[in-house]
Design a protein that fits this description.
100 residues, alpha+beta, 20% helix
Length: 100
């Protein structure tokens, strides 16, 4: 793992948008709360992270987001993926903030 980290640090910063076939998925990173299962809520101590993987090249980007919503996912994808790329997802319908 240390070898891969050193190799990644020797390369330039994240240049250019991802293209071709790009996979997008979200995960939650952080501590464990006993007795809780499923997708973490607002009061969770886990950090939501959106991961983008470019098939073929293996380029990966992991972006922490404040909350997994349609708006946040669209913003991350628009910032890191070219418009002509083929986007592969797990068809998760992101929760939308309730209107108050």
């Amino acid at each position: 793992m240390a070898h891969r980290l050193r190799c990644a640090m020797a390369q330039g910063p994240l240049m250019g948008l991802m293209h071709g076939q790009v996979e997008a998925d979200e995960t939650y990173v952080g501590g464990r709360k006993r007795g809780k299962r499923g997708r973490p809520g607002i009061d969770s101590n886990k950090t939501p992270v959106v991961a983008l993987v470019e098939r073929g090249t293996g380029r990966v980007r992991a972006i922490p987001v404040p909350r997994v919503t349609s708006e946040n996912l669209e913003a991350v994808i628009a910032e890191h993926v070219r418009r002509d790329a083929t986007l592969m997802t797990d068809e998760y319908q992101a929760t939308i903030k309730p209107v108050r």
